[in-house]
Amino acid sequence: MKIMLPNDTATVPHVGYQAVSDAHARMLGNAGHAVVERFFLGELRRFINNDDEKMAIESVLADADMRERLERCDAVVVNGEGTLHHGFGTEYLAVLGAAQQLGKASLIVNAVFEANHGWAACFPS
């Protein structure tokens, strides 16, 4: 599968963040997948929206560059490291929700999801 990896932490000058980034790339590669789109920490800030998940997802889909990148992928794997709590990480949830609307496989890895309101549609039961 062709994978989009939002929140790659490889650029953070900390051995733990770099090890996680390396581990994700190795595990995906060993499973036969290719990371074809990668967004490093902070690169998707333009999609932050703590108030309206539907609007946040729509903003991702309306962004021509982002939509094209999503359409080239088979799946989105969000690295949730340190982000999906207390209202933070909405930019990654917006990308995940947009991918789901486009029929892409979607996963969140390495995350604790805590004290976030909304976004239930991104977590089908």
Topology:
Blueprint lengths: L1 E7 L6 H16 L3 E7 L12 H10 L1 H8 L3 E5 L10 H12 L3 E5 L16
Parallel strand pairs: 1-2, 1-3, 3-4
What fraction of residues sit in β-strands? 15-25%
Summed up, the domain count is 1
Q: What general outline do the C-alpha atoms trace?
A: globular
Q: What strand line-up does the widest sheet have?
A: 2-1-3-4
Low-confidence stretches: none
Q: Rounded to an integer, what's the Rg over CA atoms? A: 14 Å
The CATH topology label is Rossmann fold
Which CATH class? Alpha Beta
Number of strands: 4
Q: Helical proportion? A: 25-40%
- Let me know the largest β-sheet: 4 strands, parallel
Number of helices: 4
> Whole-number average pLDDT?
92
Sheet/helix structural class:
alpha/beta
CATH architecture: 3-Layer(aba) Sandwich
For the termini, the CA-CA separation is 24 Å
Order of helices and strands: EHEHHEHE
What is the gist of this entry?
This protein has helices at about 15-30, 55-60, 65-70, 90-100, and strands spanning about 1-10, 35-40, 75-80, 105-110. It has about 120 residues and is of the alpha/beta class.
